[in-house]
Amino acid sequence: MNLTEVLLESRLVAIVRGISREAAITAGTGMTDGGIRLMEVTLNTPGAHEIIGDWRTRHEGQAYVGAGTVLNVQMAKDAVAAGAQFLVSPNVDLSVIEYAVEHGVEIWPGAMTPTEIVAAHEAGARVVKLFPMASLGLPYLREIKAPLNHIPLLATGGANLDNITDYFAAGAAAVGLGSALLPREALAAGNHEQIAACTHAFVEVARVKK
């Protein structure tokens, strides 16, 4: 399955960072029950490779599992060996993009400037993560899409249920979501039903394409 097509169709990536392996089980169950199709665990999360393996086993056929915060080729190799089906980074590292392209693994590298975005796209990234969106803001997204409307952007940072439609309206092809999908009290209580309800609300919004 072409995961870039899945991304552009579903318009959401769930990002999990800094949680325990046990909490990740709750998070994964809730998010997949809520309809999320792409789940990413950042590699600076303790036990990230084990979480990737757990999610692949538990959610095969429901969701695709990826690794985030991939900073170099060795991290990319280790993530793929652990079962990662796509890679996400906060920066543009051409060697990581080259590795992913050569091995048929989808990669969505993070970029901020027009130069970085174009360089990542020309290196083979079919979608580029615009990061950090919480700091850059929606006006920046709108401005940068004007000359670069041929490059799909995954806007990551700052999105919630109240403003996610503004992200799409400003030109985001997809949105990366973190804590907005995972209420702390739900994780602490192991309440995957609450996480599923929260996730489902985002999935429904993303389905409405204008």
UniProtKB/TrEMBL annotation:
Annotated keywords: Carbohydrate metabolism, Lyase
InterPro entries membership: Aldlse_KDPG_KHG, Aldolase_TIM
Superkingdom of the organism of origin: Bacteria
UniProt KW Lyase keyword: yes
Signal peptide segment: none
Pathway linked to the protein: Carbohydrate acid metabolism
Subunit structure: Homotrimer.
Stated family: Belongs to the KHG/KDPG aldolase family.
Name recorded for this polypeptide: Bifunctional 4-hydroxy-2-oxoglutarate aldolase/2-dehydro-3-deoxy-phosphogluconate aldolase
Naturally occurring in which organism (per UniProt): Paenibacillus illinoisensis
